[in-house]
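Marked as duplicate of an earlier ticket. Keeping the data here for the record.
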Amino acid sequence: MTEAKNAYDVIILGSGPAGLQAAVHAARAKTDVAVLGRLKKSSLHKAHVENYCCMSNVMAGEEMLAKGKTQAEGFGASFLDEDVVGIETESDGRFRLMLESGDALSAGAMILAMGISRNRLRVPGEKELQGKGVSACVECDGNFYRNEKVAVVGNGSAAAAGAMTLLMIAGDVHLIYKELEVDERLKEQVERSAILRHPGRWVASIDGTDGVEGVTLDDGETLDVSAIFVELGAKGALELATGLGVALDPEEMRFILINKKQETNIPGIYAAGDICGPPWQMAKAIGEGCVAGLEAAAYAKNRL
């Protein structure tokens, strides 16, 4: 992991193909670039690629990501194996990014390239009770369960940070996880808190008729809760984006709206890759990452 500074010209959220290509172009444009996220969280990590232009053999996604990181580092980009848990706009128009470790970074421009969450628990009751106590967004729905018993499930920073947030809103907060894959400081915060932890366990079913009434774990224990927040992986890309006022597509409200320069409706914020919508192809992600990297670098330079 690269040692972090406090401020960068361009910060890229996501280290998949879109983020890596953006890092290459932004760094080559002589801007100070940081990439946040973990390579193994990219959907490309476990994939194999054979339909990318000029490739003669099937190539493992894990290998491609590793080479992309090395390439971007060669041009001067820094990589931080941390997730972002919050973003604010500063008075001078820069962006302040709060990391899972508790540190904060400042950016002149940002590129959102975190992909989209395709993860679901795929357990009985999840689909049927979606919106009736099953949620994927603590910030969106947490206040509906003030002083009530709730559960959060997930191994990453979204689950850990979400559970910490719910401590200030809900009553009992259960955190269900196989193993917490977060920064040590965040893990220590969770362990020192009043969160009721269930390590090494997972959700077997979500129970209820007209709403969530409980959660059954894989060892048979039942938790009496009125809501469960499914927070798998890092902080949701759309949660971070919409908190800043970034516009989404009006039809599905699942993807970030961008123009041909990969600009969002918020000056200084760009987006690339799956977060901008289908098709889910590496070629599209890399092309958009190229444009976003160049445009974000130009924007950051003009601010100087």
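See parent ticket for discussion. The mean pLDDT is 91.
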